[in-house]
Amino acid sequence: MPAALLVPRSIHAQRPPMPIHDESGGALCDQGGRPLGPRAQNTRVRILDATVVLLGEKPMRELRVIDIARRIGSSPATFYQYFKDVEDVVLHLASHVSEFTPEIVELVQGDWSGREGHERGRKLAHVVINHWDRYAPILRVRNNACDEGDLAFRELRMSAMMPLVHAFAEIIEVSQQRAAQSTPAESKSGEEKWEGGRLYPMVAAAALASVLERLSMYHVSIEELAGSREQLIETLATLLQSMLTAKR
Length: 248
Hints:
Elements: H1 38-55, H2 65-71, H3 76-82, H4 86-98, H5 101-108, H6 114-147, H7 151-181, H8 201-217, H9 219-226, H10 229-244
Helix pairs in contact: 1-2, 1-4, 4-6, 4-7, 5-7, 6-7, 6-8, 6-10, 7-8, 8-10
């Protein structure tokens, strides 16, 4: 599949509901440390909304403060009351979107065997793809900045992904421990039957999380070039179940 054709779906995603508190739970404040009143909170939300829309139109590195200010009919001076720069706004957006990760991790926890496990995989695939569709402009910018070496975005991306990686790793470990407790099958010659190579839980979990993220990011292009959404969901569910029920 040509790499140039793997382009994330261009959409104006619905904005995430904007918080009225900061990450520590305290009241939102402007750059001078003053708590925001209702009018100021509305202005801040308008800046965030405008940034989401503009990120769907151009890369973050090409987005300027004046572009955001003009979009809300204001001035750069107003922007700087709430954010330090464009990257600061995008970091706030990306941080808020990442708060949805626990809902995804919760879907991972449970039984992955049989039909129930397969249906769990289908549901997880649906949720992750829908998550990407809704927040594509923000998540795409976060990942691109991370790939370019931006440490702030790298830390944010890792903090969002690692709970999912740890959840996958824990399930793989349990599956392998259960398999180790059973008697290995033997051939007629008495030698242990070879069942394939080994999956190292953390490495396998990181790979699985990366595949899930990447396929969700490019799912529209994949569906157009290689099949339907149903085929993608079914394949992802099968892949998830196969790796999370690994015996070794």
